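ugh ok fine here u go
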Amino acid sequence: MEFGASPRVLNPSQRSLFQQISSYGKSIDLLSSYSRHHPSKVSFHVSATNSRRDCICKAVVKDKSVKSEKGKTMLGEYSHDFELTNLTALSPLDGRYWGKVKDLAPYMSEYGLIRFRVLVEIKWLLKLSQIPEVTEVPQFSKEAQLYLQGLVDGFSMSDALEVKNIEKVTNHDVKAVEYFLKQKCQSHPEIAKVLEFFHFACTSEDINNLAHALMLKEAMNAVMFPAMDELIKAICNMAKDNAHIAMLSRTHGQPASPTTLGKEMAIFAVRLSRERRDISQIEIMGKFAGAVGNYNAHLIAYPDINWPQIAEEFVKSLGLSFNPYVTQIETHDYMAKLFHGIIQFNNILIDFDRDTWSYISVGYFKQTTKAGEIGSSTMPHKVNPIDFENSEGNLGKANGGLSHLSMKLPISRWQRDLTDSTVLRNMGEGLGHSLLAYKSSLQGIAKLQVNEACLSEDLNQSWEVLAEPIQTVMRRYGVPEPYEKLKELTRGRAVTKESIREFIEGLELPKESKTNLLNLTPHTYVGAAIELARTVDKAVNLINGIIG
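structure:
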């Protein structure tokens, strides 16, 4: 029996499979059935744990009929118990890269979702106690308010596991939170009187949409924006530090008018800053209008209360914008806009990664080495641009997931279907791969050393780029056919300092203009690039509304 295994991975003669299962369902039923028919070949158990996963399912399928060449039992009593570690995680974010993305876990994990659900449920009960018409929920004492707030502030991993244990019975994650809170509050004499007002008039999506909104808001403010800002600052520093270093431009991969290395970095800093600003201005929205968005249950229970106003006050009290026109779910349009914004930020960073990779490739940048590190398993000399490659790969992975979220989430059949529920659980993946990419780019930037000699040599070999300024000055002073004459001199031909000077000497130009052209070199023909690079901070500040 091969339980969930690929024959291309496991040899058909192997008969053991070990799988961790976070919920029981059909997998346990299948294994149980096989166990009843083959009791000597299967053993399994499920146990609770206080680790960051709520349960561990260990399954062992044994077949002692397979013998080794020596006639001994190949598998014997040997078994693999696959618990969740950095070696067994299905996603590299939870395994290999956990140390770089774990800052997102308090917000974007299952724990984070449960914690924010608890917050919303408690805040709603407190809001009900402030509505005079809801006489059944009187104003809570200061002590009771502190007790309820303590459930939010002190929400622990053990609390989250307790909710998950309740969910095993209810098979409903939001109802499990309601029952958890009732259990926590039944011993408090004041709150115990109003336990049935937890989740009052709410549909699950009233709680979920606000929890998801808070997850995104907190994750962006606490983790993603600081990482974006650090990246933009690092690229700004690259721009200023290298503002004066002339560099041969390349358009269509061919030599073009010179620029400076710093100015090319400044472009990325400004582009990323604009996207970061646009993302920060997206309204994170929420709804709280009941089962289909009409406050049906609210108005039946308390017809004299202005429930749309109460809902707006409540949503805004959480630091969110209010969406009054909804079905059972918040429409997720803001999420699509948010994820599209992150995709565009990531696209710009891919452009930066590829350009920097190319500059390393042609020798404009060297990379500092670290003792003990290996670039290639067979070529000892290699120092590969792995950080920028890692960043580019993870940005692509992030954009794939975020693109699906952006396209899928605004679409829901009639007043809602459940397709958004499972998709929303993957928000952390898109942010996680983005965060990992930002950190990889930063790591790569820290290793860069400018190779000025290589940059200078490229310019020395590219005197043809002065054709542009020469023909432009010729146009000013009415020299006939300036473009055509320079085309004949330079296109497809080897151009040297001497041939350029000889051409300039033969022009009928004012003395001052001719002298300026004779003094011009590929190193000095950089226009305003130096100043553009040096003032990049001012440009970024203006984008962010900082003047002065």
